[in-house]
Amino acid sequence: MNDHNISLGRAQESVLATNKVLKNTYALLSMTLIFSGLMAFVGVSINLGHGAALIASIAAIAMLWFVLPRTANSAAGIPVIFAITGLLGLGLGPVLNHYLAVNSDIVMTALGGTGVIFLGLSGYALTTRKDFSFMAGFLMVGMFVVLGAALLNIFLEIPMLFLAVNAAIVMIMSGLILFETSSIIHGGETNYIMATASLFLSILNLFQALLHLLGAFSNND
Amino acid sequence: MDWVKIGSALFLLAMLVFIFPRMKQALENAPKGNMQDWMSFIVPLAAVIGFVILLLMMV
User: A67 touching B, CB under 8 A?
Assistant: First the structure.
């Protein structure tokens, strides 16, 4: 009886801890998305060049790889995640400027589409409570292939390959949203700062890929 | 070729190098999914694809 009570207590503690990670992740994700949006607005306003945007993105990814893992378990992780998301938002400036000049509706549609996909997939993972950990290998291979194709297309500049890469990014990022949300639910990810970083990158890549697809299929481009 | 393209290429190359060991680890250690597991992924993915096609038809 006592053992039963102890295991029930542990299960309750685990559920409470998971809910706390989930709540903190969504709170931090909302704040970083707003901050990143503001920085993207700054990037658009000052007409940031492609070179500066690339430097901002490289700095953000370098911080994500080398600084965030060392600071994510302390309060120092909060300013680091804001710096990363701010730099990535700033890096969106030239792309947004291009599409705003072509057709501003594209940007709003991509933004709304990203929101609907993220909320829909998160809702699906939260309500079904399905464990998507089996997708880890598939998603990593997909990401590797897409990065390789994107690298190749910098030199080849094939429009169809560009579209295929962006369509693949939409699917892989959708899978990553399911994977990361399920990882939080099942205790695989217990650090809300790392979970926020992962979900933020999925949302950002999803938004950019949708923007490119909508831009390619719109009548104005 | 301008330096932004070279920078982007180097950036993507660095990401490939960074991802490769993680990919290998994920392939070796991730649990294998059965048919039912994959269906639970394919259904929402099909919904996403349908939604994106709808968005593309709207613009």
Answer: no
Q: Rg (Cα) of chain B, in Å, rounded? A: 18
Q: Is the pLDDT of residue A13 over 90?
A: no
| Domain interval for residue A155 | 2-217
Closest CA to B16 of A141, A67, A109: A141
What is the tally of structural domains in chain A? 1
- pLDDT tens for each residue of A25-39: 999 999 999 999 999
Domain extent for B51 = 3-58
CB A22 within 8 A of CB A186: no
- Read off the pLDDT of residues A163-186 as tens digits, 9 standing for 90 and up: 999 999 999 999 999 999 999 999
| CB < 8 Å to B20, chain A | 144
A116 touches chain B (CB under 8 A): yes
How many domains does one find in chain B?
Answer: 1
pLDDT given at position B1? 56
A175 closest CB neighbour out of B7, B41, B47 = B41
Please tell me which of the candidates B26, B27, B59 has its beta carbon nearest to residue A106. B59
